[in-house]
Design goal:
This protein has helices at about 20-30, 100, 130, 155, 165-170, 180-195, 240-270; strands spanning about 5-10, 55-65, 80-90, 110, 115-120, 140, 145-150, 175-180, 200-205, 215-220. By secondary structure, the chain is α+β, with helices and mostly antiparallel strands. The chain is elongated.
Length: about 270
């Protein structure tokens, strides 16, 4: 693995919901069309991440919190009684990735950039990775059962280019770079928003001590994670595997010991 891990920092405070990231992702990765009809959830026509949606822009319309200081628009206006929360979601490329733990074929692997990629030509469609993901990111395509998700444009990284979504984002809501550098930049951005009166601004998925060891794609949010469809306290689902294997091994040894003892006693009885 490369010494310098790369990732995404998504600053939702400057997302305008243009969907340029969704389009760029589909275009570069040749992802099939997965819905052109509105879902009934605002301007959302993709609803959630999936096998054919590697970037999903969430649109959340809500009453503006009382006493909330809003960053002024270009003309000095601070908006009305409602506000939009928009965020481009993506695979988190977890430090402790449960999908890697459960994949029996080696289809999922950790790249030299610290990202997690599915090799579609090796995937056997077992589906173990789907329930293993604490974020519900991975999905199987109905046609052949193979799993797909964001690769962070692994092919582009290999030639020194940034991912297509970050390249296409007009407001730099999606920022790509060395993960340590992005974390420092994100902390400064939160301080800036707090000074401007946006006190609810906080980071999500940036902490290396969290339940997945920190995400390779983390976010600046303006409300609780669940408002954006994100789990408030994600935990790697395979955290208990070592203990489970230990107990299973002990049980197997006890069973073998019992069988051996029964066999020995049976032989003794025949003498």
């Amino acid at each position: 693995m490369s010494e310098e891990r790369v990732g995404f920092f998504t600053d939702t405070s400057v997302c305008i919901g243009c969907k340029a990231c969704e389009v760029a992702c589909k275009e570069w990765n040749a992802i099939p069309e997965d819905g052109l009809s509105l879902t009934g959830m605002s301007y959302d026509n993709t609803e959630a991440l999936g096998a054919s949606t590697w970037r999903h822009v969430a649109f959340i319309e809500q009453p503006r919190p009382q006493g909330r200081t809003e960053l002024p628009l270009a003309d000095g206006d601070v908006g009305g009684e409602m506000r939009w929360l928009m965020s481009s979601d993506v695979c988190k490329h977890c430090t402790h990735a449960a999908c890697l733990d459960v994949c029996p074929t080696g289809s999922l692997f950790r790249t030299e950039f610290g990202t997690v990629v599915v090799q579609e030509d090796i995937c056997n469609g077992c589906g173990y990775c789907v329930p293993a993901c604490p974020y519900g990111v991975i999905e199987q395509r109905p046609a052949d059962g193979r799993a797909f998700k964001c690769t962070m444009c692994y092919d582009r990284l290999g030639v020194g280019q940034e991912p297509a979504c970050a390249k296409a984002c007009p407001t730099e809501s999606i920022q790509f770079g060395p993960l340590d550098e992005l974390r420092e930049r994100a902390a400064l951005r939160v301080d800036q928003l707090h000074e401007a009166g946006v006190t609810e601004a906080h980071l999500y998925g940036h902490d290396p001590e969290d339940g997945v060891g920190g995400d390779g794609a983390f976010f600046l949010l303006l409300d609780k994670p669940e408002v954006y469809g994100l789990p408030p306290d994600p935990v790697v689902t395979t955290r208990d595997l070592p203990t489970m294997w230990k107990h299973a091994g002990a049980a197997a040894l006890s069973l073998l010991g019992g069988v051996a003892l029964s066999f020995a006693m049976a032989r003794k009885g025949r003498r």
